[in-house]
Write a structure and sequence with these properties.
about 60 residues; mainly alpha; 2 helices; about 90% helix
Amino acid sequence: MGLIVATVASAGLGLDAFGRGESPWRFLLAGAGAHLASIAAVAAVVFWGRGGRKAAAR
């Protein structure tokens, strides 16, 4: 889901900036950053969320 949101946001904002004559690269890099942030959030849930379940199951 994060990849889809990052792709749509960066492409949409990048095309808008290109249409205004500005450089779209900053929006493309922001999209890559958003994708990496979503991966980090999923990793945090997987690694730290799992420890809470083990403690509750005991």
